[in-house]
Amino acid sequence: MVGLYFEDFTVGDVYQHPLGRTLSEADNTWFTLLTMNTNQNHFNAHFAAKAPYGRIIVNSGFSVAVVLGLSVSDMSQNALMNLGWDEIRLTHPVFIGDTLYSESIVTETRESKSRPYAGIVSCRTRGLNQDGDEVMSWRRSVMVYKRDAPHDKGLFPVAKTGPMTP
């Protein structure tokens, strides 16, 4: 089994998600170019050197995406959809070379009224850098399959050549 199902979540549970991710200049530049972000603080070292922090700041869309991605293994590996993010706060700058970590606390669970095979999990997630500075936080709600939901089962293909043998 990979990931948690709706029944596995309890209000108050804290998940320190297992991976960290160091952000490189290439990561930041590629994301900035892909999203058409033209703010030079994200890709022009000469320009950024004159700004208050004196160096390139990682694109906040990228850093939010990384912290969210780090939380998936625990919070939404078995989700069928995100329902929303609220109260996104960017509380500390993120720089090239920083390593981000993510942790979440379950704040609410409830059965889905429209989908009997799923429930809704709400949490507060925050991102930390390598020094323990909280760099961002938000509230998130996600619809997660229940353990007996058929939708995420039986996906691995059957080999046409038959079962593996030693």
From TrEMBL:
InterPro entries: HotDog_dom_sf (IPR029069), MC_hydratase (IPR048274), MCH/BMMD (IPR052342). Pfam families: MC_hydratase. GO terms for molecular function: lyase activity. It comes from the Bacteria. This is Acyl dehydratase. It comes from Allocatelliglobosispora scoriae.
